[in-house]
Amino acid sequence: MILLKDGVKYSLYDYASEEELARMVVEHYKDIFGINSLYFDPQTMKTQMGIEARNDGIILVPDKNQWYILEVELAAHSLSRHIIPQIMKFQMAYQQPETKRKITDALYTSVKQDPYKMAKLQTQKIEDIHKCLTEIVETPPTIAIIIDQKTPELDAVCKNLPFKTGTTEFETFTRENTGISVHIHQFAPLYEKPAIPKTLLNILTTLEQIYKKGKSYDEAAKIAAKKLKLDARTIRHDCTTDMGLTSKQFRKLLEHKEKLRTLIIEKFPNYEDAIREALS
Questions:
Q1: Same domain (yes/no): 142, 206
Q2: How does DSSP assign 94-146, residue by residue?
Q3: What pLDDT does 47 receive?
Q4: pLDDT tens per residue, range 52-68
Q5: What pLDDT score was predicted for residue 78?
Q6: If 182 and its partner were Cys, which of 51, 59, 100, 178 is the partner (CB 3.0–4.6 Å)?
Q7: What is the mean pLDDT of residues 82-96?
C-alpha cells in the first residue's frame, strides 16, 4: 500500500520487531485509548502454582471505570500459540483476590511516583485514588490487541479469549527516500468520541470560520449561525458570556490562538481532542 501527500509517496513500513511496534503504540496510547487514559509499564502476574503471564502494559481509563491489558503483536507470528496461552494464564491469576490486590498496589505506587499521573487523576476529581483503582481492577479488563495487520486468525483468537477484546490495526508509512524519521501512522481508536456539547460546537464552528476561512468574528458568527440553524446572538453568547468573557475580551483573545485554546480546554476538559483538532 502507498499513501500520497502533496505528491510525496509514503510506503508501508515493516516493523523490525514487536518491541519496535510496542514503542510506537505506547507513544500514541492517548490517541488509541482516549485523552484521559493512563499507561502503566508491563507487569508480570503469577498464579499460586507459579505460572507467569506478562503483558505489554496496562491502560487505565478512570473516567469510564475501564482498564485494558495491552497485547502488541506482529501478524507474522502465531497469534493462537502466543495470545491464547498468555491470556489464559492471566485469567487464572486474575481469579485470585491476591492478584487483584497486587495489581492495584502496583498501579497505586506508580501513580504516587509519577506527578503527571497524580495530577491527571486529581483533575478528574478523584479523591480516594486507591479506592478508585481497586474498583477499576475489580471490573474485568478488556484485552487490547494492537497488531500490524489484521488476519482471519485474529478473529478466531478473539472468540476464544475469556475477556472482552478490542483490536486495531496499527500501520506506519514512511516517506520515500527518507525512512522512519518522517512517517505517518494509521489506526482506528479503541474509544468512542463523546458527543460535543452544543455550546462547544457553536464556539468551534465559529472559530473554524475565523482561523481556517479567514473571516472576521462578526462574519464567522453569522456563518456559524446559518450553518447550525441558530440566531447569531446565540453564537455570540456562547463565545463570550458562557466562556466568562466580554465581547471585547473574546475579540482580544482571537489574536492569541494558543491562549484561547487553553481557555476552552479548561472549560471543556473532556473534549480536549476535539478542541485541539479544531484549533490545530
A1: no
A2: HTSHHHHHHHHHHHHHHHHH-HHHHHHHHHTT-S-HHHHHHHHHHSPPEEEEE
A3: 62
A4: 778 889 999 998 899 99
A5: 84
A6: 178
A7: 86
Cα torsion angle, 233, 238, 244, 248, sign: negative
Collapsing DSSP to helix, strand or coil, 223 comes out as helix
Per-residue pLDDT tens digits for 19-41: 999 999 999 999 999 888 999 99
Whether 40 and 57 have beta carbons less than 8 Å apart is answered as yes
CB 13 within 8 A of CB 180: yes
Per the structure, the count of domains in the chain is 2
Same domain assignment for residues 212 and 181: no
For 134-144, how does the pLDDT look when each residue is reduced to its tens digit (9 = 90+)?
A: 999 999 999 99
Residue ending a domain, among 186, 209, 231, is 186
Residue ranges making up the domain that contains 8: 2-186
- Kindly list the distances between the CA atom of residue 77 and the CA atoms of 42, 64, 69, 121, in Å, as whole numbers in the listed order: 20, 33, 19, 37
Structure letter (DSSP) for residue 195 = P
d(CA 40, CA 239): 38
Residues 219-247: what's their mean pLDDT? 94
**Half-sphere exposure of 13 toward its Cβ, with a 13 Å CA cutoff?**
24
Among residues 65, 68, 60, the alpha carbon closest in space to that of 118 is found at 60
Is residue 156 domain-shared with residue 19, that is, in the same domain? yes
Same domain, 137 and 236: no
Q: Which of 152, 186, 220 is the last residue of a domain?
A: 186
Which of residues 270 and 74 earns the better pLDDT score? 74
CA distances from 148 to 15, 21, 26, 151, 225 (A): 8, 8, 14, 10, 44
Q: Are 257 and 278 in contact (CB under 8 A)?
A: no
